[in-house]
Amino acid sequence: MAISIAHLGPAGTYAETAALASVQWLIQGGQDAILCPYPSIAQTLTAAAEQKVQYAVVPVENSIEGSVTMTLDNLWQLDNLRIQRALVMPISHALLSHAERLEKIRTVYSHPQALAQCQKWLDQFLPTAQLIAANSTTEALQHLGDDRTIAAISSQRAAQLYNLPILASPINDYPDNCTRFLVLSLEPSPGGTHTSIAFGMSANQPGMLVKPLQVFAQRNINLTRIESRPTRRTPGTYHFFLDLQADVREFPIQSALEELTHYTETLKIFGSYDIVTID
Fold first, then answer.
1. What is the pLDDT of residues 66-78, one digit of tens each?
2. Angle, in degrees to the nearest 10, between helices 41-49 and 69-78
């Protein structure tokens, strides 16, 4: 029986590459894997939450641009998905176009994260080009057609898949650019070196955030990330997402999470997992 893995599509996205990298770890006993592209991160996660697929692979954080807010917001809303593993993957962007020279390009399409990760390069080499956001780096390619004034930022793999010329590569502003992807499903998390949680508080008062953070500091539990997202209910109110360097099966973190319930209105535990780096 094949396993199904949702990812941001179409084929050729970095999320698809991360999904492909997950296959060997996910399949068992000669199983096959079916990759299922979806047009947005929200639909990718919803597919797994509604059991249309068994797994979802989504980006959660980029080393240059920070958190992928669409992923965080949907994780909070769905809250039944559990992280099975995290993958850190290098990201190398290329400029795809039928143009013969950069000077001919008037418009550049790509995902907002890709555009931001190449901003300095674009300012230097295409300062007058109009930048237009697309749902994914591969969706951006549909705008190329035969128009030699249009370019798209995508991956070298996408260029090969769609037989498109690469005008410049790599064009990301920082050579060590990488993105962390999450592999999620409805299954319980397997445990691992890191744990992701989120919580909300009932009031915005002085010291409200200090008390939850002290819960971890007192137990010598290291926080590797903290991120706030608006609740969308009242201006100035937030949810907080935390990554902890600990396994939820260990007593110190179990004790910390128990105490945390006294200081929070809502607590969501997305699971413990290992982080794997992909070359």
1. 999 999 999 999 9
2. 20
Main-chain dihedrals φ then ψ at residue 120, nearest 5 degrees = -65, -40
Q: Are 16 and 154 in contact (CB under 8 A)?
A: no
Q: Give the 3-state secondary structure of residue 58.
A: strand
Angstrom distance (rounded) from CA 63 to CA 81: 24
The band of 145, judged by pLDDT with boundaries at 50, 70 and 90, is confident
Of the candidates 114, 138, 160, the one whose C-alpha atom is nearest the C-alpha of residue 35 is 138
Please check whether residue 272 is in contact with residue 192, taking contact to mean a CB–CB distance below 8 angstroms.
yes
CA separation (Å) from 254 to 10, 42, 64, 158, 258?
40, 30, 33, 44, 6
**Domain architecture of the chain: domains with CATH:** 3-90+177-185 (3.40.190.10), 94-168 (3.40.190.10), 194-273 (3.30.70.260)
Instruction: List the strands of the sheet with 223-230, edge to edge.
Output: 223-230, 238-244, 194-200, 266-273
User: 3-state SS of 100-150?
Assistant: CCHHHCCEEEECHHHHHHCHHHHHHHCCCCEEEECCCCCHHHHHCCCCCCE
Cα–Cα distance, 66 to 114 (Å, whole number) = 12
Tens of pLDDT, residue by residue over 54-112, are 999 999 999 999 999 999 999 999 989 999 999 999 999 999 999 999 999 999 999 99
The secondary element (H helix, E strand) that includes residue 151 is strand 150-154
